[in-house]
Amino acid sequence: MPTTTTTDLHTGGCLCGAVRFSVSGEPTGGNHCHCGMCRKDSGSGVSTFVTFPTVNLKWDAKPAEFESSPNRFRGFCPKCGSSVTWRHGDYPDFLDFRLGSFDDPTPFKAKKHLWMSTALPSFAGIDPGIEHVDQSS
Ligand SMILES: [Zn+2]
Ligand SMILES: [Zn+2]
Question: How far is the CA of 6 from the centre of ligand 2 (A)?
Fold first, then answer.
């Protein structure tokens, strides 16, 4: 299993390449979100995010944003529509990236299942070995 260090650089972007970013260091979180808004945003049963401090983030091209609930913003590519990020306006020092937006998502590990209160068990791939939270952390 590869390990990450603070010098690791992770690159990623949307499906068409119009949105691109790089971020370095260790993620501060990794979660599978089972909320209904992430289902609508992604079209999938579960959405997986990796959290990084924004101090380590560089955008080559930024996503557009949609305020999906007050002060919560979902970043997406205005050209191809890929969902790329989620952020809470009260915590500008952190940004959640969708796991699948990374060119190499293999170094990251999920730590929590969020919004288990609205999970779809038959589609969610729920891991009994990590923390389960009824709503958000
Ligand atoms: Zn795109
Ligand atoms: Zn969610």
Answer: 27
Place of tokens 């007050």: 70
pTM of model > 0.85: yes
83 CA distance to ligand 1 middle (Å): 9
pLDDT in tens, 60-86: 999 999 999 999 999 999 999 999 999
Residue 82 neighbours by CB distance under 10 Å: 20
Q: Which domains does the chain have, with CATH numbers?
A: 9-132 (2.170.150.70)
The structure tokens listed for 108 are 């990251």
51 C-alpha to center of ligand 1: Å? Answer: 21
Residue 60 CA to ligand 1 centre (angstroms): 13
Q: How far is the CA of 24 from the centre of ligand 2 (A)?
A: 24
Instruction: Report whether 30 contacts 108 (CB < 8 A).
Output: yes
